[in-house]
């Protein structure tokens, strides 16, 4: 059976070079980085070299890179500490953030009685910048804006420069979940007015279980996890050396090949849209993902012209044919409540039909897309035929 992986927004296939680098570290550099003997010093050196390399990529100080278990922990660290340690009393966010942000904000609102406000979104799910400016300028208490750079379900891109400048002008802190953008876009944090960011390695062909937070130096933040003095006292626990080195390698390769791979995947996405329109009558695209300039080149959220109750059958059939994709996001795939993102941005008519998220990487081909479109079209034709017979 042919296998086609079109779920890279959930997780990416690791590059072989990353696996080789990690294997080498696991075999040869197994010392605890906190140990003072040679084995420990070797591991510590690998960690600090990785920190310096990563900091250089994003033009931040090495001390501003805090290694975490991934994007979710980084978001939690930043949001909790902003309220607990920095005195934030008000958070401005949106209803289509990742649950790592939304659920954390809900918990903070309950625990610390902070005020939470959600910026309006337009019909395609893009932030209403006029409303955002109103919310920011109405700040009478210490405020944090938390808005993701690239939406993981519909691919919409936030103008982080514009938002950051708005925050900076009004003495408001700005946190951005950049999990779907780091490794896919060049980001110069010496120029971008972003105070805090969250990153996850498995979104750019690196290992799972590792990521980092970018936290501006002398921010006043304190750790979320206590126990040891690792990560300059910001994150207790023995560091995962092989994962950190794997992430370093994955980032290095991502940016060395960025221009070429971006163009290649962008062309694949354009081809995918064209083929879906040509072969499936009534197909629609959620949010702004059909717009190749306003949405990320890796994500395509497709609304299909069949009843929503056929979603389980559709996903089962695609899986049976070896096609991996998601109903909304991978984090939502086991939920019966539907995608909170699609519920927030879709009109009632579109919500009557199933949506599937396809996401692309450097490992995909036009043959993959042809196969996926054919199986989708065949499923819809078979469904239509059955409905005709039954009626």
Can you give a write-up of this model?
- With 391 residues, the protein is of the alpha/beta class.
- It folds into two domains: 4-12 and 257-379, Aspartate Aminotransferase, domain 1; 16-256, Aspartate Aminotransferase, domain 2 (3-Layer(aba) Sandwich).
- 41% of the residues lie in helices and 12% in strands.
- The chain contains eleven helices and twelve strands.
- The strands form three sheets. It has a seven-stranded mixed β-sheet with strand order 2-8-7-6-5-3-4, sandwiched between helices. Strands 9-10-12 form a three-stranded antiparallel β-sheet, covered by helices on one side.
- α4 (99-112) links the parallel β3 (90-93) and β4.
By CATH, the superfamily of the largest domain comes out as Type I PLP-dependent aspartate aminotransferase-like (Major domain)
Low-pLDDT stretches: 329-333
CATH topology category name of the largest domain: Aspartate Aminotransferase, domain 2
CATH class of the largest domain: Alpha Beta
- Percent range of helical residues: 40-55%
Q: Which shape, going by the Cα principal axes?
A: globular
Sequence of strands across the biggest β-sheet: 2-8-7-6-5-3-4
Please name the CATH architecture of the largest domain. 3-Layer(aba) Sandwich
Number of strands: 12
Determine Rg (CA atoms, Å).
Answer: 22 Å
Q: First CA to last CA: what distance? A: 34 Å
> What structural category characterises the helix and strand content?
alpha/beta
Order of helices and strands: EHHEHEHEHEHEEEHHEEHEHEH
Oligomer type: single chain
Integer count of domains: 2
Q: Total number of helical segments?
A: 11
Q: How much is the average pLDDT?
A: 95
The proportion of residues in beta strands is 5-15%
């Amino acid at each position: 059976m042919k296998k086609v992986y079109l779920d890279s927004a959930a997780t990416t296939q690791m590059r072989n070079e990353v696996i080789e680098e990690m294997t080498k570290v696991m075999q040869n550099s197994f010392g605890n980085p906190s140990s003072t003997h040679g084995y420990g010093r070797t591991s510590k050196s690998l960690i600090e070299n990785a920190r310096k390399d990563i900091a250089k990529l994003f033009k931040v100080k090495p001390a501003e890179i805090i290694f975490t278990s991934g994007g979710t922990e980084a978001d939690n660290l930043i949001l909790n500490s902003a309220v607990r340690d920095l005195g934030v009393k008000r958070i401005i966010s949106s209803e289509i953030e990742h649950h790592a942000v939304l659920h954390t904000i809900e918990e903070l609102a309950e625990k610390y009685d902070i005020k939470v406000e959600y910026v309006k979104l337009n019909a395609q799910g893009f932030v209403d910048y006029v409303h955002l400016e109103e919310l920011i300028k109405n700040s009478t208490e210490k405020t944090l804006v938390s808005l993701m750079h690239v939406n993981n379900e519909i691919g919409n891109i936030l103008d982080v420069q514009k938002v950051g400048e708005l925050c900076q002008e009004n003495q408001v802190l700005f946190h951005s979940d950049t999990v779907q953008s780091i490794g896919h876009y060049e980001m110069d944090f010496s120029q971008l007015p972003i105070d805090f960011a969250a990153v996850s390695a498995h979104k750019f062909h690196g290992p799972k279980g590792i990521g980092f937070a970018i936290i501006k130096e002398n921010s006043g933040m304190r750790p979320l996890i206590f126990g040891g003095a690792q990560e300059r006292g910001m994150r207790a626990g023995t560091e995962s050396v092989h994962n950190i080195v794997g992430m370093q390698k994955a980032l290095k390769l991502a940016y060395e090949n960025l221009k070429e791979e971006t163009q290649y995947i962008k062309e694949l996405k354009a081809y995918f849209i064209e083929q879906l329109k040509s072969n499936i009558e009534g197909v629609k695209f959620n949010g702004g993902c059909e717009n190749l300039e306003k949405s990320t080149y890796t994500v395509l959220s497709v609304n299909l012209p069949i009843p929503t109750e056929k979603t389980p059958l559709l996903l089962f059939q695609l899986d049976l044919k070896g096609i991996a994709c998601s109903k909304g996001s991978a984090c939502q795939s086991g939920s019966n409540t539907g995608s909170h993102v699609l519920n927030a941005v879709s009109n009632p008519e579109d919500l009557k039909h199933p949506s599937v998220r396809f996401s692309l990487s450097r490992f995909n081909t036009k043959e993959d897309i042809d196969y996926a479109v054919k199986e989708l079209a065949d499923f819809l034709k078979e469904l239509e035929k059955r409905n005709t017979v039954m009626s």
